[in-house]
Every structure is written in structure tokens, then in C-alpha cells.
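Bench notes, afternoon.
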Amino acid sequence: MKQKRRSVIPLYDESGDTLQSRPVCKRDPEQPSLPFDPVPQRVEPCLALLRPTPPEGPEWLYEIKWDGYRLAIHIEPHAVRIITRGGHDWTHRFPKIAETAKKLGVGTAILDGEAVVLNKEGYADFGALQRSLGGRGGKRTSTEAVFFAFDLLHFDGHDLMKTELLVGRHLLSDFLEGAIWAVQLSQEARGDGAELLANACSMGLEGIIAKHRDRPYRSGRTGDWVKIKCVQSESFMIVGYEQSAAARGGIGSLLLVARRGDTWVSVGSVGTGFKTADSEYLRKTLDKLRTKTPAVPLKGKNYVFALPTLIAEIEFRGWTDDGNLRHASYKGLREVQDNAAVFDMKTLTVGK
């Protein structure tokens, strides 16, 4: 049965006039039903800056920080495309999300959000998401993944990226109301930023995101969006491993580096968080990337060096005085298509 198209509540300005987009170009013959703005093939995502404390004030909107893969859903007249942060088409990897998006009852739209797999407590589990996709380089499709939409960039011929955040949120909440399980709205969390962060941490969540309500959607790390984490988690490059006969899989620890501008800098190692299957896969893959020349000066009789190719997501509790990770734990490998950015040490000196 075809799903009935939901009506959209009109938006009004302070004078009572309806807010509508104006035509900015000629009609695209490939989009005959869209007399306004053409739908872009891809949008470079808006990214959040890391800050130690949440910004305060009525101009900020707070959401849960989802621990998954950033995606954009492009709903078109006769198709749905799911695009990764790196610009790769992963529609086939998330069939349930694509199927749900087709049933939302809109002509065209671009939804910005995050795909996650929820654990039994209802929290996002990054490792579970990776396993559902078959691990790094895997070819499996994830039927467990849920897409949490937090912004609407284009809607029925209207470019919403030039409008303030609340316009897109208003429309998004309207047509996602009562949506099927695989596509949901990332709800706004109301209250004081510091209290929300404390509550998120007590629940075992990764953290919160703060977004400026009145700013338009701008690609890159502009400061309009801010992320505050309970437990820090960043992406680091693996440049080798320490052999261990006692450890399962033969890996005692992974050697990690971060960026410092255009160079690599050691941030220590991680020896916990990976299961036997992880260790076996990592050793096999890193052995294929062996090199005699380490990416950074490192000395260890049991070290095996590898070309900087694999990016790992690492959870940690802070930094030592000499720039190493404290209490690091391995979470999983990042996909190339995920376009994960290796942590840059310069961001450690960014102010609040």
C-alpha cells in the first residue's frame, strides 16, 4: 500500500509572510517536477569542532553524539542514494535504510545524519556497526543499522542550506513523524549543556553535539557545530605492532601516530580492546604492509613496522605530558570510504 504523503506545516517570518525559496536558476529538464533549486549530487558535510566544555546560551541546540558512520541520504524522484562522508555510494550496504527512505513520501530531499547499530541498552555500538558490515573491507550489508537524521539540506526543490538550522529541523521533524524504524529523527536534548553532558556520560554515551540554531549549513569545521565527549575517541594511523608470543593473534600492541601538520608524530600504543579475530586480521594485514623504515623514529626489538595505511578508531582517557595516549583502547578500523580524518596534534592547543 502506497504511503500517504504527509503535509508540511508552512513556515512564517515575523511579519506573517510565508517563507519560501526563490528560483535561482533555470529549470533542470532532468528534474521537471522541481521548479526551484536543483538537487546537488553531493554536499561536503558540516563537521563539529572538539571542545572540552559545551557552549552555553539559548542560541545553542544540543543532541546526542552518535557513534557510527556519517551518511547523507539523497531521495530522488525515482531512486534513493546513500552517500558516505568520503563521497562513496553505499546504498547497497544499507538496504533497510534505503527501503525506509523510499517510503517517506517526499519528492526529493537530502538528509544529513549518522548510521549506527544499537546495543541491547539502546546505545550506539561502533564495533557492532563494523561487524554488521563485515569489518574493514567487508562486503556485507547491514540490516541492523538505524539512520538518525539531524539535518535537512534540500527538500522538494528548495535549498535549505542557506537557511538557519531550525528551518530544516522543523521540516525534518514533520515528515519523519511516525517514520519506520530504520530512519529516525535525532531528537533535540533540552536543558543546560553541562547537565546534559553529565547525564550523557552517566548513561555511557559518547558525548553531545552543540549546534548554533541560527546559522546556515556550512561545510567543514566552522565552529557552528561543537562536539563534547565523555570519553575521548579519535582516529589514529597504525604504523606497526609489537610482537607477543603470549598475546592472542601474536599482537601485543599497535603502534600509533597522529598528524602534526604534514608530518607524523608518535602518540604511543594500544594493547587492549581487540579480540582474537581482530588481532589475526591486523597481523595478517600489517605483515603485508611491512617496511624497514618506520614512519616515525621508534625503537623496540619486537617491533614490526608497517606503511601508514590502516586508520584505527581509538578510545582514550586523555594525554600524558609527553604527548602519548592515556588508557587507550582499540575500537575498530575505519573504512577508506568513511573518509576519517587522522587526529591532528595541533587541535590540542585549540581554546575553549
